[in-house]
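Summarise what follows for lecture notes:
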Amino acid sequence: ASAPGTLRAKVATVTGQTGSGFGNYVVIEHADGECTKYAHLAYGSVTTKPLGAPLAQGEVIGEQGNTGYT
């Protein structure tokens, strides 16, 4: 994560096709209420942490990939 926050959403599919156009993704809510979405993550790389889990700055949440409508 680029800054500490809380895991609010994640999508991890086998095919990467979620219907959203973002493929596999993670959403992090930061202390100021702003949210960051990291999309198009590689298959099998999305964090296994449960929703609501804290995330530290620099923690790996997924690997760059090519999923979704890219």
The CA atoms of residues 27 and 37 lie 4 Å apart. The chain has a mean pLDDT of 85. The radius of gyration is 11 Å. The beta strands are 5-11, 24-29, 35-41, 54-55.
